[in-house]
C-alpha cells in the first residue's frame, strides 16, 4: 500500500503562498505534474500512491477524475494570480497508470494547462504508460493532443522476472508499444527497466538491455529494485519465499547497463538515466534535479514553488471532496531553508553528468571532494575545471559520496 506522507505545516484553505515564493515563480523554469492514481492491478514492489478499483470500492469514479484535476488547476491559477509562470516548459503525467484514463481526458487536461498558463512552443509533454494500456489508436490521439514523449514501464524482457514483479504485460509487449508510439509520431520514447529482481540472471538482464536497444528508443531508465515495507514483495521476502536483493548483483547489473547502452550510443546524464542525445533527455526530471518550480496536480502530488514545497492529501475521494468544497487539497507544506536547499542541490546535482560546482561546497565538503578524487570517485578533468562529476565507480557509490560532501 502507499507509504505515508510527512506532516509538515498546515496549508492555507485557499492554498495561498508567501509573497516571496510568488515573486520567484518560474525563475528556473516551470513545469506541471499530473498524478493519475489508478492501476488495473498492484505490482508486488509498488508503494506509490495508486489504487486498484477493488481498493477504491465504489466511491471514486475514473470518469470524473479529470474534472477534479481541472478544479485544482483553477485553484492554482487563483493562487499564482498576478504572478503566473512566464510559460510551462514541461508537463509530466505520471501514476499509477495515466493511460487508464481515456485519451480524450488526458488531452483535455493538457489543453486546459495551455489555456491557463501557456505551453512553451517547445514544451516537453510526457505521459507514463503501462505497455498493455495503450493501443495504436490511443497513442495517435495523445500525439495529436500535443503529447511529445512517452515513458513505458517495461521493467524486464524475461517472463519469470515479470511474474515476480506482478507485471501484467507479456515480455514482448513493451517493445511493441514503443514501436507503436514511434509510428504515432512521438518525438521521444523511454523504456524503464528494473534490475536485481530475485531470480533474475545476468542473461535475463542482458536480454532486457538488448531488447531496449533493438526497440530504437532514445531514452532508457534503469533502477535497482528497492523493497519497500508494506508491499507484497516485502512480505514474500519476509516469509522466506524470495531472497532479498544483493548489492553486489545490483552493481554488476549497473555496469552491464552502462556497457550495453554506451556501446549502443546512449550516454548517461543522471545516474539512472541514459539518452541518445541531449534533446532526448527528460527535461521535466531535469527541472526537478536543478531546482525548478512545478505545480503537482492530483492526490498525493508534490509541488515546489519559490522555495515552498507542499503535498496533497493522498486518497482520491478526499482530494475530490476538498476541491468540491472550494478548498486546497494540500495536506502539508514546508518552507525550505538555505540549508535545505544546499543539501538538495548537492544530492541532486551530483547525480548529474554535468556535476556540481565545487564552490557550492563548504570547506569540509571540498576536503571530502579531494578525498573522493583520490579514491577515484570523481573525474579528474572535471575537478580541475571546478566541478565534482562522478566516475563510473563513483556512480556505484553515489549515495556515500553525497553523504561525505554534506555537513
From TrEMBL:
Q: Pfam families from the xrefs?
A: Radical_SAM
Protein name, please?
Heme chaperone HemW
What are the Radical SAM core domain coordinates in residue numbering? 24-264
What family is this protein classified in?
Belongs to the anaerobic coproporphyrinogen-III oxidase family. HemW subfamily.
* Primary location: cytoplasm
Under the heading PROSITE patterns, the entry gives:
RADICAL_SAM
Q: Identify the SUPFAM superfamilies for this entry.
A: Radical SAM enzymes
Please give the SMART domains that the UniProt record associates with this protein.
Answer: Elp3 (SM00729)
What is known about what this protein does?
A: Probably acts as a heme chaperone, transferring heme to an unknown acceptor. Binds one molecule of heme per monomer, possibly covalently. Binds 1 [4Fe-4S] cluster. The cluster is coordinated with 3 cysteines and an exchangeable S-adenosyl-L-methionine.
Q: Give the residue spans that cross the bilayer.
A: none
Q: Which UniProt keywords apply?
A: 4Fe-4S, Chaperone, Cytoplasm, Heme, Iron, Iron-sulfur, Metal-binding, S-adenosyl-L-methionine
Source organism, top-level taxon: Bacteria
Amino acid at each position: 500500500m502507499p507509504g505515508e506522507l510527512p506532516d509538515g505545516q498546515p496549508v492555507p484553505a485557499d492554498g495561498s503562498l508567501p509573497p516571496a515564493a510568488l515573486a520567484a515563480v518560474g525563475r528556473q523554469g516551470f513545469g506541471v505534474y499530473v498524478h493519475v492514481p489508478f492501476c488495473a492491478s498492484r505490482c508486488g514492489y509498488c508503494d506509490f500512491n495508486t489504487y486498484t478499483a477493488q481498493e477504491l470500492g465504489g466511491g471514486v469514479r475514473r470518469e470524473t477524475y479529470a474534472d477534479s484535476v481541472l478544479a485544482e488547476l483553477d485553484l492554482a491559477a487563483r493562487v499564482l494570480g498576478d504572478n503566473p509562470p512566464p510559460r510551462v516548459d514541461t508537463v509530466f503525467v505520471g501514476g499509477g497508470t495515466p493511460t487508464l484514463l481515456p485519451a480524450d481526458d488526458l488531452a483535455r487536461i493538457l489543453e486546459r494547462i495551455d489555456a491557463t498558463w501557456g505551453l512553451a512552443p517547445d514544451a516537453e509533454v510526457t505521459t507514463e504508460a503501462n505497455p498493455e494500456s495503450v493501443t495504436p489508436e490511443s497513442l495517435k490521439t495523445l500525439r495529436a493532443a500535443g503529447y511529445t514523449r512517452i515513458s513505458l514501464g517495461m521493467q524486464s524482457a524475461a517472463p519469470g522476472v515479470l511474474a515476480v514483479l506482478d507485471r501484467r504485460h507479456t515480455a514482448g509487449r513493451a517493445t511493441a508499444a514503443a514501436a507503436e508510439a514511434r509510428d504515432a509520431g512521438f518525438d521521444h520514447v523511454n523504456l524503464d527497466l528494473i534490475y536485481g529482481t530475485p531470480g533474475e540472471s545476468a542473461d535475463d538482464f542482458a536480454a532486457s538491455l538488448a531488447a531496449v536497444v533493438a526497440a530504437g528508443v532514445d531514452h532508457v531508465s534503469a533502477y535497482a529494485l528497492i523493497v519497500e515495507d508494506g508491499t507484497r514483495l516485502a512480505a514474500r521476502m519476509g516469509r522466506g519465499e524470495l531472497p532479498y536483493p544483493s548489492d553486489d548483483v545490483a552493481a554488476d547489473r549497473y555496469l552491464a547497463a552502462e556497457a550495453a547502452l554506451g556501446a549502443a550510443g546512449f550516454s548517461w546524464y543522471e545516474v539512472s538515466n541514459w539518452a541518445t542525445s541531449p534533446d532526448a533527455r527528460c527535461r521535466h526530471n531535469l527541472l526537478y534535479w536543478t531546482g525548478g518550480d512545478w505545480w503537482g496536480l492530483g492526490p498525493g502530488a508534490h509541488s515546489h514553488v519559490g522555495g515552498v514545497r507542499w503535498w496533497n492529501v493522498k486518497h482520491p475521494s478526499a482530494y475530490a471532496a476538498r476541491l468540491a468544497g472550494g478548498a486546497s487539497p494540500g495536506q502539508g507544506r514546508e518552507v525550505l531553508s538555505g540549508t535545505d536547499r544546499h543539501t538538495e542541490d548537492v544530492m541532486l546535482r551530483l547525480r548529474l553528468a554535468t556535476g556540481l560546482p565545487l564552490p557550492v561546497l563548504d570547506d569540509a565538503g571540498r576536503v571530502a571532494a579531494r578525498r573522493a578524487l583520490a579514491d577515484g570517485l570523481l573525474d579528474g578533468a572535471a575537478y580541475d575545471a571546478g566541478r565534482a562529476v562522478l566516475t563510473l565507480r563513483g556512480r556505484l557509490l553515489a549515495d556515500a559520496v553525497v553523504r561525505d560532501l554534506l555537513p
